[in-house]
Write a structure and sequence with these properties.
Elements: H1 4-7, H2 10-33, H3 38-42, H4 53-72, H5 86-101, E1 115-118, E2 126-129, H6 130-155, H7 162-166
Antiparallel strand pairs: 1-2
Helix pairs in contact: 2-4, 2-5, 2-6, 4-5, 4-6
């Protein structure tokens, strides 16, 4: 039987990362068709104080891999934020999904009650227990960044809709 914590996280993260990759591909095709520099999209943002599309995708992936690792009790893979193109973002998404594919449901057993500490030893330290961490912090954070990336592309004229968002 699959662990609830695995089922509530990994398939959700993988679905939304796959749909994000497909949306990014549509954005890249749109930019090429309209003769728009890809950086217009990659650096696009909804408001001046929000992250760019590039950073939204990076952070969404960071939440997926970080949450998965913490719940599975393994080290979080470190990725350098060096992406500068759509191809780089596709590769980062693929790397994140490959990491999640390396995890088994059994690794998530008991994670409902595992102590999760973010930013340990700093003034921003946050302490959670596994299930509230997943359901009330990690998943909402993940969806915020996925949705922001979608909103940026929609705002910039990429023809995408709910079916694209859901994958």
């Amino acid at each position: 039987m699959n662990s609830f914590m695995y089922t509530a996280s990994i398939p959700v993260f993988k679905q939304m990362l796959a749909s994000s990759k497909a949306i990014l591909m549509k954005a890249e095709a749109h930019a090429a068709a309209k003769n728009i520099d890809a950086q217009v999209f990659l650096q696009g943002r909804l408001a001046p104080d929000m992250f760019s599309l590039m950073r939204q995708v990076q952070v969404a992936g960071d939440f997926a891999k970080g949450t998965a690792a913490r719940l599975a009790g393994v080290a979080i893979p470190e990725y350098q934020d060096t992406e500068v193109s759509f191809a780089d973002l596709y590769a980062r998404i693929d790397k994140t999904v490959a990491f999640m594919d390396s995890l088994t449901p059994a690794q998530f057993d008991g994670s409902e009650t595992r102590d999760i500490v973010l930013r340990p030893g700093t003034p921003k330290e946050m302490k959670f227990v596994g299930q509230p961490y997943l359901l009330h912090y990690a998943i909402p954070q993940f969806f915020f960044h996925i949705t922001s990336a979608y909103g940026i592309l929609r705002h910039l004229g990429v023809e995408i809709g709910k079916k694209d968002y859901m994958g």
